[in-house]
Amino acid sequence: ERMADATSRLLHVAPHTRVFCLGCAAMVDGADAIRMGAIRALGEGEGTGCRVVDGVAAGVAWLVSACRTQF
Questions:
Q1: Which of 44, 49, 64, 45 is nearest to 18 (CA)?
Q2: pLDDT given for residue 47 in this prediction
Q3: Could you tell me if 11 and 40 are in contact, meaning their C-beta atoms sit under 8 angstroms apart?
Q4: Do the beta carbons of residue 7 and residue 34 sit within 8 Å?
Q5: Can you give the pLDDT at residue 12?
Q6: How far apart are CA 41 and CA 25, in angstroms?
Q7: How do the residues of the chain divide into helix, strand and coil, expressed in percent and rounded to 5?
Q8: DSSP strand E in 1-71: where?
Q9: CA distances, 64 to each of 22, 45, 53, 57, 68 (Å)
Q10: Distance CA 41, CA 66 (A)
Q11: Neighbour-count burial of 49, counting CB atoms closer than 10 A to its CB (0-12 exposed, 13-18 middle, 19+ buried)
């Protein structure tokens, strides 16, 4: 709930924000809360269009790709 509230407050101050980057692996469960806060602040249409980047998942995907291509 605190993460959703913080997201809503942020979007009232910076309403053009559409991408959120999770800071660490411990925040992985925060993606749904961020989406909920965005929907509260922006409404269903624009709020669901916000993206949440999970750095851990992105890093793992990059590593898998690098291994497959023998980078």
A1: 49
A2: 93
A3: no
A4: yes
A5: 94
A6: 25
A7: 65, 10, 25
A8: 19-22, 51-54
A9: 20, 34, 17, 11, 6
A10: 38
A11: exposed
Give the model's pLDDT for residue 24.
Answer: 82
The pLDDT, as a whole number, for residue 25 is 78
- Cα–Cα distance for residue pair 13/38, rounded to 1 Å: 12
Residue 43: how many CB atoms within 10 A of its CB? 10
Amino acid type, 55: G
**Residues counted in the chain:** 71
The one-letter amino acid code at 66 reads A
Query: Are 47 and 41 spatial neighbours (Cβ–Cβ below 8 Å)?
Result: yes
Which mean pLDDT values do the consecutive 10-residue runs of the chain (71 residues) have?
A: 94 94 83 94 94 91 95 83
